[in-house]
Amino acid sequence: MKTAAATLPPKPRSAGAQLIESWQWTASQIGKGLWLALNAPREISARPDHVPADRVVDFDFANMEGAETDVHAAWKRLHDGPSLFWTPRKGGHWVVTRAELIDMVLRDPETFSSTEVILPRGSKPLRLLPIEANPPDHQHYRALVMSWFTPKAVAAMKPGIQERTIEIIEAMLPNGRCEFVSEFAKRLPIAIFLQLVNLPMEDREKLLEWTETAVRSKNALHILSSFLKTNNYIEGWIRRRRAEPGNDLFSAIVNGRIQGRPLTHAEIQGMLTVILFGGLDTVAAMLAFMTKFLAENPGHRQQLIDRPELIPGAIDELMRRYGIVNLSRLVARDCVMDGVRLKKGDMIHIPNSLYGVDERRHVNPLDVDFTAPLKADRHASFGLGIHRCAGALLARMELAIFLEEWLKRIPDFSIAPGERARTATGQVNGVTYLPLVWKTARA
Ligand code: HEM
After folding, report:
1. CA distance readout (Å), 108 to 86, 92, 358, 376, 385
2. Are 279 and 189 in contact (CB under 8 A)?
3. Tens digits of residue pLDDT in 37-88
4. Which domain, by its residues, includes 29?
5. Is 443 domain-assigned?
6. Ligand 1-lining residues (CB < 6 angstroms)
7. 200 CA to middle of ligand 1, Å?
8. CA 4/CA 147 separation, integer angstroms
9. What is the DSSP string of 239-252?
10. Total domains in the fold of the chain
């Protein structure tokens, strides 16, 4: 499960030196936080000279019209406009909308650097790793986490995930109703995450709250504050894991080495933040979009009940149709794309969720077909290129176990009469409210 690099003992450091490093890190974070707050970009940025006027669209991905009722339809409307445009929002940035261009950006880290993946540029106090590392450093950071997500390592987690999934479903089963997002979609991934990093289950609520704000808040200061709270929390655990390493991913990162040297505080913080923010909200969002679809489409639901072997393909098909991640890149060198000049230092937003619904790549992309043949280029929902999701196997397994166990126990469910599901946009598209009902044995 673990690489030799991850298991090497840390270089001995005195407790005093570690404490000083930790204080320095905390003080620098507060300083950076204040600086970022004072230098937050204006609401509307001026159009730079190299941006043609006919490529400007006033678009704010955190405030899209209609996103609260159907976030994917709101994104899809971008396909009515240019394949590449510039918006003055969030510090001013480009947006690519077509699969072909999303491919180009994600597969060319030399031109489109991962140094900054969150908009506005510089809005967070730490470097997210391995996402914000470029080659050649990227592979070293990635190797440290990948050993925890190999097929063997993920298979070893299966019984625990299955048990937790069944436990949560069976607890709500007799009620005949639930608000799926808060009662299931968020509870399962946080439980799995806490198990993976061996942190106390009681910390669940606050971690969920910080993650939600970090990935979906419209307010840059709130996002920043949730990053700082999370980092402060992680800080306390770094000290404990250094003193008493365990057999968990957190200990492997804290005590791991990259090219023979121990990781710095900033690197440890950056890696744990990605595992936390990357692993929680994404899985919760996918669980909720899948469930919303199945609640509204009894025919598709029945197909999975009759033919559970379709479940793995159905997960990919639903990930294609309801993609969730919308991250960015920094243009690292001048280039021309879609006939437009991009300049070094520009930011470019990549809504991965638009990739799978591009009719230039897929026939009838808004239709969902669980029997569609699996094709490698079907979606970019786990990303493309060197940063492709490290936790993809684990995520797929969580989603598959959920579908199998839920459909066995609650085969017939729908959105509560008179109610509507609510969705949201952000760095990750999500469902914020999903009231479900089903018949119980008592009914
Ligand atoms: C359905 C659930 C998930 C989705 C849709 C998803 C999506 C993504 C995407 C799109 C990226 C690439 C980001 C980029 O190119 O900038 C990514 C990277 C990553 N994801 Fe996930 N993710 C999911 C679940 C998870 C889980 C469960 C974990 C771990 C617990 C995880 C850990 C990571 C890590 C460590 C990276 C960085 C990989 C690198 O930079 O090399 N993800 N994920």
Report:
1. 20, 22, 21, 18, 8
2. yes
3. 555 566 789 999 999 999 999 999 989 999 999 999 999 999 999 999 999 9
4. 4-438
5. no
6. 114, 117, 130-131, 142, 145, 274-275, 278-279, 282-283, 286, 324-325, 327, 352, 381-383, 387, 389-391, 394-395
7. 23
8. 10
9. HHHHHS--SSHHHH
10. 1
